[in-house]
Design goal:
By secondary structure, this protein is mainly α. About 75% of the residues lie in helices and about 0% in strands. It is built from five helices and no strands.
């Protein structure tokens, strides 16, 4: 049996990035896998990182349940709190990336005489957002990696797998930022 895409949500345009966390994965797929996507690549990457942090949290919750002593349970609880906060920051970074994309698209559709300057400005804003996302990703990676020592051996592999996704996401975000920088440089040379 194959997956079916739920088309009940008619989102010709994703008007508010704040709705992103409320979308199902099928809706994100549908809004991304198009000739004119409604969801950005950065947002997809950051959603993937957010899901990877959920895997880390799962491993830590299982580890806490299996921990023998109260001190270890408390240590794991501290990790869970920190990583939950970082996970929310990753989700917010995805929302910020989507907001930047929506601003860029509005400029693309405008008939302003300063359109090229506005495009450059929106790409610069996107790069600021991506650099902020990269900082959160580095923090997420460090927190997940340091949590390995409290992870139960049966679930440490989940954290290790999440680390690979987080590292790949960071590299992907850096590639997006480099692409924006090249576009900015090219546009500035044309002015």
């Amino acid at each position: 049996m194959g997956l079916t895409i739920d088309t009940r949500i008619n989102m010709a345009e994703l008007k508010s990035a704040k709705t992103l966390p409320l979308l199902s994965l099928q809706e994100i797929w549908r809004l991304t896998d198009q000739e004119f996507p409604q969801v950005t690549g950065g947002c997809v990457l950051l959603t993937s990182a957010t899901l990877s942090m959920a895997m880390v949290l799962m491993a830590l919750r299982i580890s806490r349940k299996k921990a023998a002593g109260g001190d270890m349970k408390q240590e794991i609880t501290r990790y869970i709190r920190r990583i939950s906060s970082t996970q929310r920051n990753l989700s917010n970074a995805g929302i910020a990336d989507q907001d930047c994309f929506n601003a860029y698209r509005r400029v693309l559709k405008s008939k302003s005489k300063a359109k090229k300057l506005d495009l450059i400005s929106s790409l610069k804003d996107a790069n600021v957002s991506l650099k902020g996302a990269a900082a959160v990703l580095r923090k997420a990676f460090a927190e997940a990696k340091s949590s390995l020592y409290v992870a139960h051996q049966t679930v440490a592999c989940d954290i290790e797998a999440a680390l690979l996704v987080l590292d790949g996401t960071l590299k992907g975000v850096q590639i997006l930022s480099e692409s924006n920088s090249r576009m900015i440089k090219q546009m500035e040379a044309e002015i």
